[in-house]
Amino acid sequence: MKKVKNRQCVRHLSYRILVMKRKKNLSAVLAIMLTSILFSALFTIGSELVASFQASTMRQVGGCRMSGVKYILPEDYEKLKNDPAVKNPSYRIIVGDAVNQALKKLSTEVNYAQDGNAEGMFCLPTTGHMPEETYEIAASSLVLSALGVPLRLGEKVPLEIDIDGKIVKQEFTLCGYWEGDRVSMAQQCFVSRKYCDMMIPVPEVPFYKQKGTKYAGYWMMDFDFSNSFRIEGKTKELLKRNGYRLKHMDYGVNWAYVTSGVEPEEAASFSAVLLLILISGYLIIYNIFSLSVAEDIRNYGLYKTIGMTGRQLRRLVRSQALFLSAAGIPSGLIIGIVGGNLCFPFVIENYSVSAASRRISPVFLLCAALFSFLTVLLSVSRPARLAAKVSPVEALKYTETSSGSFRKKKTKKTKRVSMRSVGWSNLLRNRKKAALTVCSLSLGLVLFNSVYVAVRSFSLDSYTSQLMYGDAVLSDASFTNMQVLKRNFEGITEKVQKDLDGMEGIESRHNVYYSDVSSLVSDDAAEEKLSAFENRCADQFSKDDRSWFRQIMEGDRLECELYGLDEWGLEQMEECAGEFDREKFSSGNYAVAGTWGTIWGLEGKDGIFYQPGEKATIQFPDGKTKTYEIMAAGNIPYALSSRGFTMVGASFFIPEAEFKEHVGTSAMLTVLFTEDGKRDTVSERLQSYTETEKTDLSCMLKKTYEEDFMKYIRMFWVIGGLLSLCIGVIGMINFINAMVMGIISRKREFAIMEAVGMTGRQLKQTLIWEGNYYMLLTAFVSVIFAVISQKLLFKTFLSEIWFLQYHFSLLPVLASLPLLLVFSWLLAEAAWRRMGKESTIERLREME
Amino acid sequence: MEVLCTRQLKKYYGTKENQVKALDGVDLSVKQGEFAAIVGTSGSGKSTLLHMLGGLDTPTEGKVFIDGKDIFSLKKDELIIFRRRKIGFVFQAYNLIPVLNVYENIVFPLELDGNTVDQPYLEDVISTLGLSEKRTSMPNQLSGGQQQRVAIARALATKPAILLADEPTGNLDSRTSQDVLGLMKTIGERFGQTMVMITHNEEIAQMANRILRMEDGRLLQK
In total, how many domains does chain A have? Predict the structure, then answer.
C-alpha cells in the first residue's frame, strides 16, 4: 500500500473532538492522573529506598566513586586520566598505616590525597583545610578522639606510621578534620604532598613486578563513568584499551552501585503493587474509553463512510488517549513525586539507613511515566479495536444495548414492572461495563481491608518479646553492639546491681549470667558424638565439615557457652528433651544442655550435643573443672541469650548460685520489671543512669520498642491507606462514570418513558435502585475477595513476619457499605436533578 | 462510457419462509456524466441498493463495478480507500463532523488520503455551492440547506467517479430542496459529474436526466 501522509489530519480531528468534549474528558484525565500518581509515588519511594541503601553502602565502602584502580604508577595515572570514559579522576598516594597503641581498635590509613579524592571518600575536612605544609595533617574525628587529641586546629598529633614495615614516629600539626564515620571500614589521615615526597621514594617498578609487597608510594586512582551501568565491564575495557593486562592490575568497583540492597521480598511486594496499580488503572481507563467509544460509535461509522480506514480510526482513538495522557501524566507525576517524598520518611524510619540523598533519579521518573503510558495504551487498545471494527451501516443503528454479545433469552416472564426491576435490568444491559465497575470498586475495598487486617494483626507483645523481656534490660554497651569484636559479658557488676536495687519503682529484677567456657571431651567421646551427629544430619554434614570440626576440637576441648539462670530465667526456658526437676537442679550437680545445630538444619532434640543422662565436664575460666550430669535439654529465648553465633559449640545452663560460686558475680544482663504505673519514671531514671553515671552500660527500654513498633504501624497505615484511597477514588470515578454515561446514553429513553407517563420520582427511583445494585454486587464481590486475599496474604507474604497474630476481619468492607449506598443515592439524586432542568421535549429532540 | 454497473445484485435477509428479498437481481448501468434518480416507496429497496453501490453493505449475490472495478473483490481497507477516492456520499442527515469547520469538513476526505488539495477546483466547487462566506463556520451554525451543500462539497472534493445521494433533500423544505437540487444539476453539468440519487419524491426526481423506479427489490426501467 502506498504510504501516505495523513497522520496530521487524524491527529487534528482527535484534538478537535477532545476540545469539544472538554467536560467529559475530565474523568479520563483524572483517571490517567491518578494512575500516574500511584506509579510515580511508588517509584519515588522505591528509588529513594535504593538510593538510601546505596548511600549507606557507600559509607561502608568509604567512597562514592564508581570505580578505582589500585597500586599504579604516576605515569599510569596520567594515561588513564585522559581516557574519554573516565570522569572525575583523582588519586591518593599510599604512605602507610597509623599504628599507635591507641588506634588498635581503629584501622587507620595514612595517605596523601588530592582534594577531589578526599571528597570522594567523604573525608574532605569540614573544619580547616587539607595539609599543605610538610608537617600538617588532616584526620577523621574518630582518630583524633582515640588519640586523645582535642578537636581544635593547630593541636599536635603524634603518629606512629608503619611504612612498609618500618615504624616512623612523627608529630604533626592538625590543619583540618571531619566527622569520622564508624561504619566505614578504615579511617583516614591525610599528610601533605611535601611530607609524602620526602618520606616515600617514587616506586620504579610496576606493583606486580616487585619482589616483596611494598605499598608505599603507589598511587590509588578513583574515578566515575558517565553512568553506573556495567561498571565492572567498563573498568576492564578501560584497562585493556590502555594497554594493560587485567591480571597485572588491581581494580575494584564500588559495590554500592552493583548491589542495590533490595531484598527479594521487597522486590516482590514492589512488583505486586506495580501490578495492582496497573490493573486498577486499566480497569478505569478501559471503562472510560470503551464508554466514550460506544457513545461516539455513530460518528466513527460516519468517518468510515467518508473514507477513514480501520487503522485510521484506531489511530484516532489512540491519539485521543495520547492527548489525554499528555495532560494527565505530567501532572500526575508531579503530584506523585511530591506525595512520595512526603510518605518517604514513614518508610525510611523502619530501615537502618539514613535518608541521605533526596534526589529523584530521572530513570525512575521515566519508568513511572512509561508505566502510566503503558497502562493507557493497554486500556485503550480494545476500545480502539471496537471503533475500528464498526461497520458504517450498522453504526447508524448502534445503541448501547447492542454492545457486547446479545443474550438471547428463550422466554421472558411477564411480571409486574417495578422501579427495582427496571434498575436491575438497566444494570444488566451492559454486563461487561457492570462487571468492570464492580471490580474496580471492589479492588480499593479489598486492598483497604487487607491493610486493616495486616495492621491489626501486628502484635506488640510478640514484637517486643522477641527483642526483650521485662520493661527494661541493662547490659554492657558492647553486648548489643555486634561490630565490637570483644564483647563484655560482665557489665552488670555487683555495684550496678546494688544501684539498681536501690532504685524506686522496680518490682523485680532478674540476672542472666554468661561466660565462655570449655567442655572437656576425650577423643573417643568426640568421635562418637560426631558419628551420632552425622547420622542425624547426613545430608548437611559434609566431610569438610567433619575435618573442620575435628580441628576446632583440638586439645580435647570444645568451646561452650555457660549460662547462670535464676528461677525466673528457668521459667522462660523452652525444654525439648528429658525431665526437668527443679529440686534436683538447684543442688548444683546438674545442668541443662542447650540445643544447637540449627545451622545444619537440626531442630530441637536432634540438635543436642549432650543427651540427657550423659555427663559433661566443664572447665571454668579460672581453669578449675566440674562435672555435671545433664538433666534435660532446652533453650532460652534469643533475647536472653548471649546473641553469639557459634558454628560449633554447646551451651549449658546452671543455677545462679552455682555460676556465682565458680565463675563470678557480674551478670551479662539484668531484666527489670517495674511496678504498675511507674514504668515511665523508671525508664527515665535508667536512661539518665546509663547516660551519666555508668556510661559503659546500655539500656533497652520496652518503651522505645513500643515507639518503634508504632512507627512501623504508622508506615503501614499511611502507605496502605493512601494506596487504597487512591484506588478507591479510581473505583468511585469508575462508578460515577458508569452511572452518568448510562444516564446520558439513555437520555432519550428516559424522555420517552416520561412521555408515556413515568413520573420523575419513579425515574429517580430506578436510578437509585441501579446504584444500589451496583453497591450490593460490589459488597458481595469484595467480601469474597477479601476473604481469599486475606488467606493468601497471610499464608505467603506476611507469614515471614514474626510479630504477627492473624486476626480475620471484614469490618472495613462492611463498614464502607452504608457509605457507598449513601454515595450512590446522592449521585442518582444529582444526576436526576440535572436532567430535570431540560424539558421532556428538548430531550426527545436532542437525539435526532 | 459506463461508470457504474451492477450485475444481478441480490440482498436477502433471513431464511426460508421468513426470507425478505431487499434486492432481487438488479442490473443497472450509469454512464459518464449522467444524473440518475431512483424513485420508490419506502421498503422498495432503494436505500439498500445505494448502500451496495457505495460498498457500505455487502450483497448476497451479484457484483458492482465502478470505473470497471469489481468493488467487492477488494479487501476491507482497500474498499474503504477505493471508496474515499472514487465515491462521494451525500446523506439525508448531512453527517458533517461536528467538531470541524466547513472548510475542514470539505477537505477531510482528501487529508485522510494524504493528498494535496486542488485549490482552484475546490474554490470553484465552494463558490458554485455558495459557501465562500461560510468556510470557517461550524456545522451547528448552519441551516439545513447550507449543511447539505457542505456535504455535497465534501463529496466532490476528491473528484469522485460517482456521487451517491441518499434522499439529499429529505430533511429540507421544498424551497430549499429545489435550490439544492438545482445546484446538484449545475454541478453535474459544470464538472461532468456522474450522480445517482435516491428519493421517494417524484417532483425531486424530475430534476434528473434519467429516472428509474424500484419496486419490491426490482428495478423497473422506464
Answer: 4
pLDDT: is B83 or A800 the higher one? B83
Indicate yes or no: CB of B111 within 8 angstroms of CB of A16: no
Report H helices in A541-611: 543-552, 567-572, 582-586
Q: Does B75 touch chain A (CB under 8 A)?
A: no
* B window 48-67, beta carbon within 8 A of A: 51, 54, 56-57
Number of Cβ atoms within 10 Å of the Cβ of A476? 23
Tens-digit pLDDT profile for residues A766-823: 888 888 888 889 999 999 988 888 887 776 666 666 667 777 888 888 888 888 889 8
The residue of B48, B82, B94, B97 whose CB has the most chain A CBs within 10 angstroms, and thus the best one to mutate to test that interface, is B97
Distance between A27 CA and the closest CA of chain B, angstroms: 20
Considering the domain architecture, whether residues A651 and A592 belong to the same structural domain is answered as: yes
- pLDDT tier, A602 (very low <50, low <70, confident <90, very high otherwise): low
pLDDT (0 to 100) of residue A45: 73
Q: Based on the domain organization, do A659 and A785 belong to the same domain?
A: no
Interface subset of A 302-361, CB within 8 angstroms of B: 302-312
The average pLDDT across B186-198 equals 89
Give pLDDT tens digits for A576-594.
777 888 888 888 889 988 8
Nearest residue in chain B measured CA to CA from A18 = B99
Report the pLDDT value the prediction gives residue A844, as an integer from 0 to 100.
Answer: 56
Domain match, A391 and A334 both: yes
Q: Which three cell numbers stand for residue B9?
A: 445484485
A139 strand-pairing partners? A177, A189
Q: How far is B4 from chain A (nearest CA, A)?
A: 19
User: Is residue A128 assigned to a domain?
Assistant: yes
Residue A170 covered by a domain: yes
Residues A368 and A454 in one domain: no
Respond yes or no on whether ipTM tops 0.90: no
Task: Find the residue in A nearest to B89 (Cα).
Answer: A306
Yes or no, beta carbons of A393 and B56 under 8 Å apart: yes
Query: Which residue, of A644, A677, A695, is where some domain finishes?
Result: A695
Domain residue ranges of chain B, discontinuous segments joined by +: 34-56+81-220
CA angle (B177 as vertex; B173, B179 as ends), nearest 5: 125
Region at B45 (left for phi over 0; alpha for psi -120 to 50; beta for the rest): left
Domain B34-56+81-220 bears CATH identifier 3.40.50.300: yes
For B85, the closest chain A residue by CA position comes to A307
* Judgement on whether residues A134 and A212 belong to the same structural domain of the protein: yes
Q: Mean pLDDT over residues A271-296, rounded?
A: 80
Q: Per-residue pLDDT for A458 more than 60?
A: yes
Cβ B61 vs Cβ A397: under 8 Å: no
Tell me: pLDDT of B215 over 50. Answer: yes
Structure confidence at residue A64 (pLDDT): 83
DSSP 8-state code for residue B35: E
> Is there a single domain that holds both residue A3 and residue A103?
no
Q: In chain A, positions 612-651, which contact chain B (CB-CB < 8 Å)?
A: none
3-state DSSP call for residue A670?
A: strand
Pairing mode of beta strands A250-253, A67-72: antiparallel
* Nearest CA distance, B10 vs chain A (angstrom): 17
A184-to-A220, B8, B14 alpha-carbon distances in Å: 18, 92, 85
Q: Are residues A81 and A215 in the same domain?
A: yes
- Closest of A512, A532, A516, A514 to residue A524, by C-alpha: A532
- Final residue belonging to a domain, choices A222, A253, A284: A253
Same structural domain, A727 and A800: yes
Most confident of A420-434, A463-477, A693-707, B150-164: B150-164
Give me the residues paired with residue A156 across strands: A173
Q: Which of A6, A13, A304 sits opposite B114 (nearest CB)?
A: A6
Residue A459 is placed in which grid cell?
502484635
Which residue in B has a C-alpha nearest to residue A393's C-alpha?
Answer: B56
Cell output for A125: 575536612
Using the Cβ of B86 and the Cβ atoms of chain A, whether some distance falls under 8 Å is answered with no
Structural domain span for residue A547: 489-695
Which A residues, 492 through 551, put their C-beta within 8 Å of a C-beta on chain B? none
